[in-house]
């Protein structure tokens, strides 16, 4: 199987040097070439700078005109070749999105961390999505939650008789990813082997994981992932605790990291707080992007 096409060859120096004269042998070579006088085949490229119906007859045009026509032909071929290269090895632009950041890294390993366009379902580029590519890690694709649901400022909540998910509390809501779209998110999961996401619980006198006062995990929060997968202290898959500042009774934060080898379990769509309800208690949150690799 042949690999992707290489770089298009440079423009011949003879065609670039305006003061260079064609030799007699060069002129004869053009005369003897059976393709020079062949009528050009029509193509579907209406924006081509060439008149593809035109016949080049070296017996009736000057050397300068012939050089200009050949230069135009070569320039057009070079432009088409470059466009084919971008299709085979997309650059991560809106017009030429990659399938995911891993593919972009494989084709262009010198690219830096940053925002690029990808199209996991390989459809039309109109549904391409803007994502952050962690090239330092080898091409991790990171997608942010919708801005309106990705965070919540510190505030007090009334505690009902039965504990419940944050989305069911007054002024609560689910964490959504509608800007990305469910179809692209599904394809991105299918193309990945692992996924991870961070979550920061902001607190004032509200335990997030371990309680220093009760010496227990009775007030630890749990998370709800895609497909109703739960992550918590008593769950099969437990979150990793990066920093647990909320274990003390003060204003602080606790940072969680959820990692899984089953990308269909993420992203985080809800969480279940436990230690709240008093007038001296407040909590908020900030959910990080979900990253696939």
Automatic annotation (TrEMBL):
SMART domains: COLFI (SM00038). It is found in: Secreted. One of its GO terms (cellular component) is collagen trimer. Its main location: secreted. It holds the Pfam family COLFI. One of its GO terms (molecular function) is extracellular matrix structural constituent. Keywords: Collagen, Secreted. Residues 68-293 form the Fibrillar collagen NC1 domain. Transmembrane segments: none annotated. This is Fibrillar collagen NC1 domain-containing protein. The lineage of its organism: Eukaryota, Metazoa, Ecdysozoa, Arthropoda, Chelicerata.
